[in-house]
Amino acid sequence: MAATGWLERLRAARKTALLADGKRKIHYLFEDGKEMAEEYDLKTHQLLLRKWREKNALGAHGNWEVEVGEPTLLAAGALDREFIKESNTNPVFMRKDTKSSFQWRIRNLPYPKDVYSVSVEKDQRCCVIHTTNKKYYKKFTIPDLDRFQLPLDSTALSFTHANNTLIITYQKPTEILAAEEELQKELKKIKAANNGEGDCKTQ
């Protein structure tokens, strides 16, 4: 099963844990050299951040790519800061999950709800957002479903709009809910490096 395959890959990865700022921070190093970093709320165990990094053809580390959480702004010089300031009305796309659903928020979209359409493209394994006024269009995938080789279900998809923000929700399949529960059990076994318990456990 694909779910078992992904969990086994996580178990096989070299993992390091830190506790800081009310978060459990986990770093994974996979056999193929890819790295994944996750942050969970210590009280709710809710995923706050997931990002990926891999080496380029020359063996140097690439930039982190955020999958879940706030997009990362790189250290900005004066010109960059000015550009960011001028561009803060552009739509900002980010993913912020809940316990039971994958959720995406696109800020700075002022149009009324009836302008938007959100649909599933099963053949392309992606979701599509477009507006009747042709002011915004975006395709995005759900990597979790790809990792578990699960089909996209249009009935799991819904959206709402409030405060200039389009909020898209996709209900997590039972297979992913079960896998996430299993993963939390695994993560709790890892001793945090800064928790007075010595070195981190690697699996």
UniProtKB/TrEMBL annotation:
Protein name: Protein DPCD
UniProt xrefs under InterPro entries: DPCD
Family from the record: Belongs to the DPCD family.
Pfam families: DPCD (PF14913)
Superkingdom assignment: Eukaryota
